Amino acid sequence: MMNQILLDESVSKIIKHPIDNTPNVYGNCKPLLKWPGGKTSELKEIIPRIPEHSRYFEPFFGGGALFFNTIIKTSFVNDLHADLMFFYKCIRNENSEFYSLLKEFVLVWEESDDKQSIYMKVRKRYNSTNVTSVQKAVDFFILREYAYGGMFRLNVKGEFNVPFGHIYINKNIQKKIDHLSSVEVVSKLKNSALYNLDFKDFAKNFRELYT
Ligand SMILES: C[S@@+](CC[C@H](N)C(=O)[O-])C[C@H]1O[C@@H](n2cnc3c(N)ncnc32)[C@H](O)[C@@H]1O
């Protein structure tokens, strides 16, 4: 069953997109967030093995290291993690509420001498049910940036419980936000259909294209 929230009107346009025969050109655009199992350090092995292709399908998108670093073709990307895919959707849609909430965070963050307590407040809000989807996407991004070791871990109640990663205190968050909203990132995502499905259901969407 397709996820109607994430499969929006742009998807049918992309599915009907003519086969893209422009040559593969590999760039150097970094992933948008830390994600366990990211393939950034394996790219030098993967890139030379990518065959000529007209469309790109990625069922386990995660941090999308390969996609962001290399892929320019019309893409279909999927991950079972709903918050992750909604975050990408905010970036693709240049969601103004997302950026204004993030700006509010940065103002408070940069003024504060107690970053750990701000992190803990964000973590608490992310775990609460009383939060808008866009605020949750912002909090998801902040927690990815500042969680200890870049870990993503949930307790038995399904709550995110990774402590603050003190070494990240001086990181340049504005530089990261500029990357999220860069033309390169946004145009890659606009040329992509985003799915939030189990990989088997994702694959079913394309059966008719290849049988
Ligand atoms: C190792 S990460 C992918 C890393 C990514 N290739 C990168 O370079 O950043 C694996 C991803 O698979 C997703 N995943 C796990 N089970 C899945 C399933 N049944 N269907 C779709 N995605 C799934 C996880 O949420 C996770 O983001």
Spell out the blueprint of helices and strands:
Layout lengths: L8 H7 L27 H4 L9 E3 L6 H5 L5 E4 L3 H11 L3 H16 L3 H13 L5 H14 L26 H8 L2 H8 L1 E4 L3 H6 L2 H4 L1
Parallel strand pairs: 1-2, 2-3
Helix pairs in contact: 4-7, 4-9, 5-7, 6-7
Bound molecules: S-adenosylmethionine.
Question: Can you offer a commentary on this structure?
Answer:
This protein folds into 2 domains: 9-91 and 183-210, no CATH class; 95-178, Adenine-specific Methyltransferase, domain 2 (Orthogonal Bundle), CATH 1.10.1020. The protein has 11 helices and 3 strands; from the N terminus they run H-H-E-H-E-H-H-H-H-H-H-E-H-H. The chain is globular. Helix 4 packs across helix 9 (183-190) and helix 6 (115-127) packs across helix 7 (133-146). A 3-stranded parallel β-sheet has the order 1-2-3. It has 211 residues and is mainly alpha-helical. The longest helix has 16 residues, at 96-111. The structure holds S-adenosylmethionine. S-adenosylmethionine binds next to helix 3.
β-sheet strand percentage: 5-15%
Strand segment count: 3
Total count of helical runs of at least 4 residues: 11
- Stretches with pLDDT under 50, minimum 5 residues: 1-6
Shape descriptor: globular
Straight-line distance between termini: 20 Å
Instruction: State the major sheet.
Output: 3 strands, parallel
Strand order of the largest sheet: 1-2-3
Cofactors and ligands present? Answer: S-adenosylmethionine
Rg for CA atoms: 18 Å
Q: Overall mean pLDDT score?
A: 87
Classify the helix fraction into a percent range: 40-55%
Structural class: mainly alpha
